[in-house]
Write a structure and sequence with these properties.
Its EC number is 2.7.13.3. It is a multi-pass membrane protein. It catalyses: ATP + protein L-histidine = ADP + protein N-phospho-L-histidine. It is a single chain. With about 600 residues, the chain is α+β, with helices and mostly antiparallel strands. Among the domains are: about 210-285, PAS domain (Beta-Lactamase); about 465-550 and about 570-610, Heat Shock Protein 90 (2-Layer Sandwich). About 55% of the residues lie in helices and about 20% in strands. It has 17 helices and 17 strands. A 5-stranded antiparallel β-sheet has the order 2-1-5-4-3, sandwiched between helices. It has a 5-stranded antiparallel β-sheet with strand order 7-6-10-9-8, with helices on both faces. Strands 12-14-15-17-16 form a 5-stranded mixed β-sheet.
């Protein structure tokens, strides 16, 4: 609450600069963050689509590679000599067996000239095991290949069989890890006759060459796994390929986002239907958005620089724009200190120019009134003119500056708190009141006094920001009744100052006016302020009773005493004016209860004619 009060009393320049910079920075940073979020979302989607296209191309290349291996199993059918040799029965001749083996071995060696270095070994399995490989290895010619599942499967279908990752078979001491393509071989003369099978063993070098062309960045990787979760290919050891594969299988989606160890990854996957392998591509979202992050940070830097430049420009603009207004506020402070020789150079045609002109007129009028008041008081007290009309005129002119200074204080406070519209409105009201007072005689109609009270209370209600409520309940039949000018204003002002100003909560002021049964008119000004203690009330009643219409010097002493104590000057003034005007039978009475409020009763004759 304390900070908020301090903010309320900031200068207009400070508020304008603060909110201008706040709005500029807020809008720029909000736009940058929203743009970054939208850009990263779109970029991640585009990246996902691009990666999906890349692994689809990898899948196509691997399928093409496997198709080459499948076509390699058909090569015996392209050589009639090989097929005839395979069909020959040479069990009874060792020489024929030797020739058959040499012929087939020579054919297989020609196959191994094939530039694909990923082909590890080729087997032709008929009555014997015929094989050639790139690397020398001991072949187990006594191996019962007929018992392998892949051989039995090949014997039951004419389609090529894909054998997943396994240790190379039909060799001694174990071979390397390979995958194989197996194809049933049938006689070209009798298609119903099965001669055996051809088996091509291949390593993963060809697949590695295809996958190595795909760059998933330093934070990502590319993996190929089979259904048994064997890792066929991996581009990095930093990531757990099996864990990623499990998450892909669990989601059932080709694209997903995961979080591992505080890092977000984008997963793309596709299935190779021929081999039943799964390709998993992993992209680091942080790495994908690195450029976007750099662009965002650069945007923030530019926003700060632009905001600083805007602040500097706004500072000079606000300083120049508010210079006239701040000058008026400065002049008002000088007026508060009693300097009425100030003047605003009003050479503008806008609202500030009008405000300056009104201010000059107001100060000029106050200066004239004070000069008149000073001159009149000087005449009264120097020449000791005790006539009633002279005393009334002196008191009347003493009250007006008191009211004007209070109103000027209100307008000054409104100017300082940035409420220019209200200040201008109150200047209008004050100017209207001054014009009315300059045309007033010593007696005015009650309606005019009520209009002035309405304007005054409206200004004060604005000053206290709604804490002050007021109501005028005067019998309309009394509106044409003549009364001394500014008779009730000091009483109402006293209720505002000692009632509303000293109280934090709501304060209500009600003004009643009615005829009494005895032919007089009673006005009551009641407030719900702090009220007075019995001791303070007793002192005030004593001051009011000491005022005698035939002894003005006593009243003056009371005024001085009231001024020194800070209590009752307005009430004493009004009471003296009434008694000077109408006699000692009329005047003011006060009733008050501490903590509940104060009531001031003003008794006047019905006709409003004072006795001479």
């Amino acid at each position: 609450m304390h900070k908020w009060k301090r903010y309320r009393y900031w200068s207009i320049k400070k508020k304008l600069l603060f909110f201008s910079v706040l709005f500029i920075l807020g809008s720029v940073f909000l736009a940058s963050i929203l743009s970054y979020s939208r850009y990263t979302m779109d970029f991640e989607q585009q990246s996902s689509e691009q990666v999906q296209q890349i692994i689809a191309q990898v899948s196509y290349n691997i399928d093409t590679y496997l198709d080459d291996l499948f076509r390699l199993t058909l090569s015996p059918y392209m050589n009639d000599g090989v097929m005839q040799t395979l069909e020959e029965d040479v069990q009874n001749s060792q020489l024929a067996q030797l020739k058959k083996r040499r012929f087939i071995d020579n054919y297989l060696e020609e196959m191994m000239i094939y530039p694909r270095k990923d082909i590890n070994r080729v087997f032709i399995l008929t009555d014997e095991i015929y094989t050639v490989g790139r690397m020398p290895i001991s072949v187990d010619y006594d191996s019962r290949f007929q018992e392998f599942d892949w051989y039995k499967q090949a014997m039951n279908t004419q389609d090529s069989i894909f054998v997943p990752t396994h240790t190379q078979q039909m060799v001694k001491n174990g071979g390397p890890k390979v995958f194989s393509i197996v194809k049933q071989l049938r006689s070209t003369r009798d298609t119903e006759k099965i001669l055996g099978a051809i088996k091509v063993d291949a390593n993963y070098n060809g697949i590695a060459v295809i996958c190595s062309k795909v760059d998933m960045g330093s934070g990502g990787g590319l993996f190929i796994l089979d259904n048994n979760r064997n890792v066929i290919y991996r581009s990095t050891d930093r990531l757990n390929a099996v864990s990623l594969f499990n998450q892909v299988q669990a989601s059932g989606k080709p694209t997903m986002t995961i979080n591992q160890s505080g890092t977000s990854y984008l997963l793309n996957s596709t299935l190779l239907p021929r081999s039943n392998w799964t390709i998993v591509a992993v992209s680091s979202i942080k790495e994908l958005n690195q450029k976007a992050t750099e662009t965002r940070n650069f945007g923030f830097f530019i926003a700060l620089a632009c905001s600083l430049l805007a602040f500097i420009l706004m500072y000079f603009f606000v300083r120049r724009f508010l210079a006239p207004l701040l000058h008026i506020v400065k002049l008002m402070r000088e007026v508060e200190q009693g300097n009425l020789q100030v003047s605003f150079p009003a050479h503008r045609n806008d609202e500030l120019g009008y405000l300056g002109t009104s201010f000059n007129g107001l100060v000029s009028r106050v200066r004239e009134m004070l000069e008149e008041n000073t001159q009149l008081v000087k005449q009264v007290y120097e020449k000791e003119l005790l006539q009633k009309e002279a005393q009334v005129q002196a008191l009347y002119n003493q009250i007006r500056p008191h009211f004007l200074f209070n109103t000027l204080n209100l307008i000054s406070m409104q100017m300082q708190t940035g409420k220019q519209d209200k200040a201008i409105d109150h200047l209008h009201k004050l100017s209207s009141m001054l014009r009315s007072m300059t045309r007033m005689d010593k007696d005015i109609l009650l309606q005019k006094e009520l209009d002035l009270l309405e304007a005054y209370l409206s200004i004060q209600s604005s000053r206290y920001e709604g804490r002050l409520e007021y109501e005028l309940q005067v019998d309309p039949a009394l509106h044409d009744m003549p009364i001394p000018a500014l008779l009730f204003q000091p009483i109402v002002e006293n209720a505002v100052i000692h009632g509303c100003e000293a109280k934090r909560g709501q304060t209500r002021i009600v003004i009643f006016g009615e005829k009494t049964a005895s032919g007089e008119v009673l006005f009551t000004i009641r407030d719900s302020g702090q009220g007075m203690s019995p001791e303070t009330l007793q002192k005030l009643r004593g001051k009011l009773e000491q005022v005698q219409p035939d002894h003005p010097s006593a009243g003056d002493q009371n005024l001085d005493s009231a001024s020194r104590t800070g209590t009752g000057i307005g009430l004493v003034n009004v009471n003296k004016r009434i008694k000077l005007k109408y006699g000692s039978g009329y005047g003011i009475k006060v009733d008050s209860v501490l903590g509940q409020g104060t009531a001031v009763f003003v008794l006047l004759p019905e006709t409003g004619l004072g006795k001479e």
